[in-house]
Design a protein that fits this description.
This protein is an alpha+beta fold. The chain folds into two domains: 186 residues, tRNA(His) guanylyltransferase (Thg1) (Alpha-Beta Plaits), CATH 3.30.70.3000; 53 residues, no CATH class. The protein is 40% helix and 19% strand. It is built from ten helices and six strands, in the order βααββαβααααααββα. It is globular. It starts with 22 loop residues before the first strand and ends in an 8-residue tail after the last helix. It binds 2'-deoxyguanosine-5'-triphosphate and magnesium ion (4 copies). One magnesium ion binds next to loops.
């Protein structure tokens, strides 16, 4: 009812429109997934099915929200980039956050059995989400590089000792996947019968090469681990050429189409971005 005496309550609502002409990055993160992953006995440090379920949710997001251009996921988190010019929900942060995170969560629950046919969902998964605006392509790329570089820091678990070489490495950006390598090593040592503190002692002060050696002794070649574990996952839309029909001379007629792709790429270096220049193109 227009102009009723109750109408004034609307003036209490706060404006949360995000800055125009900036990339909107949405990060979704599982709430209390430390407990959730224990309860559902996820493999340590990386559970392939859990990661694939997250990827399926990200793919569904691309089908549902056409202004998404790129996303990157590791562990219980996924970052989504909306195109700079998006007018999705008038760029209202609370709308964007609430709609996307509820969609993601519902899809996670709906698809749980497809990925874990042998496991019941024993507790209710929930996710938090936030939006951040980045004004330039360079900063978006730095954001994504930051997520890829830091990945698996959380897999160390709360209160687990973080070795000096790890801290130095992230501070000075020496080595890309050092956290994941540490974790893989840590959990392999546990698997081989060591206690947590024995495993930490064994890893104390070790460099990349030493950890590779430990892994090798335990029968693991780090570089042979699936890329999904080493790199995380990228879901994005890319132009692909598809044959739509053949003409009367038998020649293929091609059309380029946007297709949702999932891959496990290095997004820190330039190569991926050179090969996929259209993703973060300014319009
Ligand atoms: P939060 O986000 O503050 O509510 O708390 P958490 O517990 O979700 O902590 P977070 O997001 O920093 O770290 C992710 C947790 O999820 C981490 O404790 C380990 C767990 N997790 C994620 N992916 C995997 C996996 O593939 N395997 C196992 N075993 N655990 C995983
Ligand atoms: Mg969190
Ligand atoms: Mg979490
Ligand atoms: Mg997390
Ligand atoms: Mg409504």
């Amino acid at each position: 009812m227009a102009n009723s005496k109750y109408e004034y309550v609307k003036s209490f609502e706060v404006e949360d429109k995000l800055m125009p002409s900036t990339w909107i990055v949405l990060r979704i993160d599982g709430r209390h997934f430390h407990q959730f992953s224990d309860k559902h006995e996820f493999k340590k440090p990386n559970d392939e099915r859990a990661l694939e379920l997250m990827n399926a949710c990200a793919e569904a997001m691309f089908e549902e929200f056409p202004d998404l251009v790129f996303s990157y996921g590791v562990s219980d988190e996924y970052s989504f980039v909306f195109k700079k010019t998006t007018e999705f929900y008038n760029r209202r942060s609370s709308k964007i956050v609430s709609i996307t995170v509820s969609f993601f969560t519902s899809f996670y629950v709906m698809k749980w059995k497809d990925f874990f046919p042998d496991k019941d969902l024993k507790s209710i998964p929930s996710f938090d989400a936030r939006t951040v605006c980045y004004p330039s392509t360079k900063i978006v790329r730095d954001y994504l590089a930051w997520r890829q570089k830091n990945f698996d820091l959380h897999l160390l678990g709360k209160g687990v000792f973080i070795p000096m070489d790890y801290k130095l490495a992230t501070a000075f950006s020496f080595v890309g996947h050092i956290n994941n390598q540490y974790n893989t090593c840590f959990w392999k040592l546990i698997e081989s019968g060591k206690t947590k503190s024995e495993a930490q002692d064994r890893l104390k002060g070790t460099q990349t090469q030493d950890k590779n050696e430990i892994l090798f002794q335990l029968g693991v070649n780090y570089s042979d681990l699936p890329a999904i574990f080493r790199k995380g996952s990228c879901v994005f839309k890319d132009k692909v050429e598809e044959i739509v029909k053949y003409n009367e001379n038998g020649q293929p007629v091609k059309r380029s189409r946007n297709k949702v792709i999932t891959d496990h790429c290095d997004i820190i270096g330039d190569k991926f971005w050179k090969d996929h220049a259209s993703i973060l193109e300014d319009e």
